[in-house]
Amino acid sequence: MADRPSLKLEVVSDVVCPWCYIGKKRLGDALALAGDVDVEVRWRPFFLNPWIPRKGVDRKAYLEAKFGSVERYRGIAANVAAAAAEEGLSYEWTKISRQPNTLDCHRLIRWGEAIGQSDAIKQRLMELYFTGGGDLTDPEVLVRAAADCGLDADEVRSRLASDLDVEAVARDAKAAADAGISGVPTFLFDGRYALSGAYPADQLAQAIRQVAASEQQQAS
Question: Is residue 113 one of the residues assigned to a domain?
Answer without folding.
Answer: yes
